[in-house]
Design brief:
The chain is globular and about 65 Å long. The strands form 8 sheets. A 7-stranded mixed sheet has the order 18-19-17-16-22-23-24, sandwiched between helices. The chain has a 5-stranded mixed sheet with strand order 3-2-1-5-15, sandwiched between helices. A two-stranded antiparallel sheet has the order 4-7. The chain contains 18 helices and 24 strands. Helix 10 crosses helix 16 and helix 11 packs antiparallel against helix 14. The longest helix is centred in the C-terminal third of the chain and has 28 residues. It is an alpha+beta fold. The protein folds into 2 domains: about 240 residues, Nucleotidyltransferase, domain 5; about 120 residues, 2-Layer Sandwich (Nucleotidyltransferase, domain 5). Strand 18 and strand 19 form a beta hairpin.
Length: about 525
């Protein structure tokens, strides 16, 4: 680490619900954060859009607010770096002008016919997976969205100079350069995961020109410097280095300290995901293991993502807890802490209920978009607190099935780091430890893993840090959860019942999906 006077790293996570700005000291200490939300639009069935200029306004506003609230001079910022939502397809012209007010974001399912055509042209899904390492729904990927633009808005496609991802749209606004990094591009559906370059086979099958794709950088690369116009809008000094950073999932993986084998992490945001470090891609069509490029050059981050995590607790709160919501506001207590007061008193864990946590269909480990949420085992003795406990268990059990997939592939995990808002719950952390029968360390940066990952990438990019091993020092302060041997055996049995329950319900889920 260098010995300069006090300097800081500014990071932005261009997320799905809003932009989080964070400033870190060069010792890795969080100095301050602020959050600026923006709107998501649903104009048609399967269509999900956001306005990239909303991201830019949020970036400018949160940057200025954060500098003001921390009383940090812009001249003391050493670098700005990024995490961002993935699977982007933002059309811009040669001057960086946005060609469509609202763009299709990662959760958009509109390109159904384009995804089918691509799979047919490429010779089947298995071949697509072999090339890209992408195990998610093909219509979610950038490549299908670009095909959708070409089919449905041909004039926009023709005028497009480059299709960018979310963070790289902001980088373009700051620097005027057109680029992407390997982590983000590895979740586009048009990158060869083994060759780490754009796939000519995929692009030919899709009919998309590689000239419309940006250059590729490592996450540590200086993508450019803040230009005069951006300096006026953001208060950042002209000439400030801008480092690429990473897509949000690899950034979280990195910020959680997953920089060597044997360690994994639990992310509980609205979704629930996990990943491991690997020296090479590992392809498994059966479990659709997702292969990302790691933030560390020439390494990989292997992931499974369940689409329902903390959103299940939010659904429970919003559906059943009007009185508790009012009470929590009146006595100034976090609503989730209040809800868990009664649940923590329950002496018998696990419950004798099964919660199938697919309030949002699709995702690991079953990848069935028709799956839906279910509670099995209800009776007249069940109270609200039992249902909340079953929900927390069901999310954790589903995570346990995902981890079993890693084990089946010979990937050993010794312990987990936990991040995300859901990890604030000590009860939930203990449930995860008991389900997994593993030690869980809770990160000191539960909700800043993405921005911390971006900060370390930025610091390496400008020479503040020598390498990623600095994370071992920054993340050393954690509390630890140890599995309870007696309860571990009960959850092992319950997980088997969970698997049987899902398999028994899958046909029902598919039948229900036919009813409008």
């Amino acid at each position: 680490m260098n010995n300069k006077m006090v300097k800081y790293i500014l990071t932005h996570d261009i997320g799905t619900t809003g932009n989080k700005a964070s400033i870190f000291g060069i010792e890795g200490n969080l100095v301050g954060s602020c959050y600026e939300p923006y709107e998501t639009f649903y104009p048609k069935r399967f269509r999900v859009e956001q306005k990239p200029m909303d991201w830019w306004y949020a970036f400018c506003k949160s940057t200025k607010e954060l500098l003001n609230s921390t009383n940090i001079s812009p001249n003391d910022i050493e670098v700005v770096s990024f995490s961002g939502q993935m699977m982007g397809a933002i059309p811009v012209d040669k001057s960086g002008n946005l060609l469509r007010d609202g763009v299709l974001i990662w959760s958009d399912y509109s390109p159904i016919s384009q995804a089918k055509r691509l799979i047919d042209e490429i010779g089947g899904w298995d071949n697509f997976y072999k090339i890209t390492g992408g195990g998610q729904l093909v219509e979610n990927y950038s490549i299908a969205k670009i095909m959708w633009y070409k089919d449905n808005e041909s004039e926009i496609y023709k005028r497009t100079y480059k299709f960018l991802h979310a963070k790289d749209f902001i980088i373009n606004k700051l620097t005027g350069n057109y680029c992407n990094d390997y982590t983000d591009a590895s979740n586009s559906g048009y990158m060869d995961i083994n060759k780490r370059e754009y796939s000519s086979e995929i692009l030919e099958a899709s009919g998309i020109s590689n000239e419309k794709l940006p250059s590729l950088n490592e996450s540590f690369t200086i993508a450019g410097k803040v230009n005069k116009e951006a300096s006026k809008l953001t208060q950042l000094p002209e000439g400030l280095p801008v480092v690429e950073g990473a897509g949000d999932v690899p950034a979280a993986n990195f910020g959680a300290g997953v920089i060597n084998e044997g360690l994994s992490y639990i992310y509980i945001g609205s979704a629930n995901w996990t990943g491991v470090y690997s020296k090479k891609p590992i392809l498994d069509p059966e479990t659709r293991l997702v292969n990302f490029c790691h933030v560390i050059p020439n390494a990989y981050a292997l992931h499974h993502t369940a689409y329902t995590g903390g959103i299940a607790k939010q659904w429970y709160k919003d559906t059943f807890c009007n009185i508790e919501n009012i009470l929590s506001n009146n006595i100034d207590i976090n609503i989730y802490d209040l809800l868990e007061l009664e649940t923590e008193k329950l002496k018998d864990r696990p419950t004798n209920m099964i919660f199938i946590p697919y309030l949002r269909g699709g995702g690991a480990p079953y990848h069935n978009i028709n799956s839906s949420g279910s509670i099995i085992g209800l009776n007249l003795a069940v109270k609200k607190e039992h249902i909340l406990l079953a929900i927390m268990e069901g999310v954790a059990l589903n995570f346990g099935v995902m981890i079993d997939n890693f084990k089946r592939l010979g990937i050993n995990i010794d312990k987990f780091n936990a991040i995300g808002g859901g990890a604030k719950s000590r009860l939930w952390m203990q449930i995860y430890s008991d389900v997994l029968n593993k030690e869980i360390n809770r990160s000191i940066y539960l909700q800043e893993a993405n921005t911390l990952g971006a900060a370390i990438a930025g610091g390496i990019g400008v020479g503040i840090y020598k390498n990623e091993k600095i994370l071992n020092n920054i993340l050393s302060k954690m509390d630890t959860f140890i599995p309870n041997e007696e309860i571990v055996l009960k959850y092992k049995e319950l997980k088997n019942i969970f698997i049987e329950a899902y398999n028994g319900l899958e046909k029902t889920f598919n039948l229900l999906s036919r009813i409008n």
